[in-house]
TrEMBL record:
<protein>
    <recommendedName>
        <fullName>SGNH/GDSL hydrolase family protein</fullName>
    </recommendedName>
</protein>
<dbReference type="InterPro" id="IPR036514">
    <property type="entry name" value="SGNH_hydro_sf"/>
</dbReference>
<dbReference type="GO" id="GO:0016788">
    <property type="term" value="F:hydrolase activity, acting on ester bonds"/>
</dbReference>
Length: 264
């Protein structure tokens, strides 16, 4: 499968980990895989639509070369959708991929839903006047997921006739489950949600591993619990932490219909 990821800095650390996971799976997908990035830091969907990527493959103009588009919006949505027409832009990207992707045979689209700042709350600096900035990270995750769901529902209700449904990688649901398990003391090797982050929003190696597991499950239909405990050349969590992450991702995805998770 030839996949292109259109996004920003919350996309960048996922792609190399995902590539190694698919390679380690040792199936047909590994032998024929193409996993490319088309990213611009901080960019919303409309900016990426209007500005060709001069340094990487371009997810709009080069979509004929791909079978799958993984698309995300600027995070957080609470301070993006009202300015960037996110629902209609997602539908525009989806329709373009379906009509022009795979040399006109149609490329499917997956929406990569992301999260919010871990330091959100009453003492949050809030430099961009985020309307949800006074709420804590955990309080905001379901609100953020609702906004992603609105985008997904809008696309699926208006997608071109005959097109395959938009699927969703539910990052806020995974982060909420991880947060609760860490708080309950049931996440091996993790003491606080910040242990998954480089800063207040960007993932470190452990966080990238967690979210890459969700990508490999939704994009390729792999059961993350069956993946080897780590591909070489990429930093990995300890085996106990990795196994816990695999089970968490499996549990979240099987209860979320729009992931269309049916592991092989």
């Amino acid at each position: 499968m030839r996949v292109i990821h259109s996004g920003h800095s919350l996309t960048d650390p996922i792609v190399p980990v995902l590539d190694m996971m698919v390679a380690a799976a040792g199936q047909q997908e590994a032998r024929s895989r193409v996993i490319d990035r088309s990213t611009t830091p901080g960019s919303p969907m409309d900016w990426r639509w209007d500005h060709r990527n001069e340094y990487m493959p371009d997810a709009r103009h080069d979509i004929a070369d791909y079978d799958m588009l993984v698309l995300t919006e600027r995070a957080p949505l609470s301070n993006t959708v009202q300015w960037h027409d996110s629902e209609n832009m997602a539908l525009k990207w989806f329709s373009h991929a379906w009509n022009e992707g795979n040399k006109g045979a149609g490329a499917r689209t997956i929406l990569y839903a992301t999260w919010v700042h871990t330091d959100s709350g009453p003492d949050f600096d809030n430099p961009y006047d985020d309307p949800d900035g006074h709420l804590t990270f955990r309080e905001r995750l379901p609100l953020e997921m609702e906004r992603w769901q609105i985008i997904a529902d809008e696309v699926n209700e208006n997608r071109p006739d005959g097109s395959a449904p938009l699927r969703v990688i539910p990052g806020p649901l995974i982060m909420a489950a991880a947060h609760d398990a860490i708080a309950a003391g049931t996440a091996p090797g993790l003491n606080k949600i910040e242990d998954l982050f480089l800063d207040t929003i960007h993932l470190n190696a452990q966080g990238s591993y967690l979210i890459a597991l969700a990508h490999v499950a939704v994009i390729y239909g792999f059961d993350p619990r069956n993946l080897t405990n780590f591909p070489v050349r990429v930093e990995a969590p300890d085996p106990a932490t990795a196994d816990w992450m695999k089970q968490l991702v499996h549990d979240v995805l099987k209860d979320y219909p729009d992931a269309a998770y049916a592991p092989s």
